[in-house]
Amino acid sequence: KAGVTQTPRYLIKTRGQQVTLSCSPISGHRSVSWYQQTPGQGLQFLFEYFSETQRNKGNFPGRFSGRQFSNSRSEMNVSTLELGDSALYLCASSDGQALVVETQYFGPGTRLLVL
Amino acid sequence: AQSVSQHNHHVILSEAASLELGCNYSYGGTVNLFWYVQYPGQHLQLLLKYFSGDPLVKGIKGFEAEFIKSKFSFNLRKPSVQWSDTAEYFCAVKDDKIIFGKGTRLHILP
User: Fold this and answer.
1) Where are the domains of chain B?
2) Burial degree of B4 (CB within 10 A; 0-12, 13-18, 19+)
3) Which of A88, A89, A104, A111 to mutate to test the interface with B (most CBs of B within 10 A)?
4) Chain B residue closest in CA terms to A4
5) What digits encode the pLDDT tens for the residues B28-87?
6) Which one of B14, B77, B88, B95 has the largest count of C-beta atoms within 10 Å of its C-beta?
């Protein structure tokens, strides 16, 4: 099976702009989670989508949003970018059955630099 | 809210030394615990996980971790490290969502 893919891999934006990141999960996986990774804060959970619905949400402002499509692909959007949004954004997919401790499989990430 | 603490931010060891990386989470109840590893230039990948049963969990590449409920701990161990174990290690706990520790950078000297 192909792994989790994320596009683009690198992105440079300026403050105030908005950005959309894309994640394609492993085939058959229905859950997609997004994380922000920075040197200071480590890995922080943004949100999880399962069957096109947001199932869990972390403590990020409303500028961070996401969605999931019927084919389980997910997009994450950040509006009104701030310098502090510079980070590696990771996507992880899993089977999504909440009763099972499923393993998450991570993508390579999108490195976003905000100037 | 649940939180995860990894005691060591940076560890340097020589090959063949024994390794123990500390991890504590903030409160009990039913939790699922994980260790993830990120090798240089590679994706984050699962090393091992605990959800019930034997508190001593064995993972890939000779790693193991012990869940001690009374101490809210899930420390990672390896009896003899190799240069290829150089990586960043993340402890994580899941109740309704997964919370990661800030990671420990492990550097093995050849």
Assistant:
1) 3-109
2) buried
3) A104
4) B43
5) 677 889 999 999 989 899 999 998 889 999 999 999 999 999 999 999 999 999 999 999
6) B88
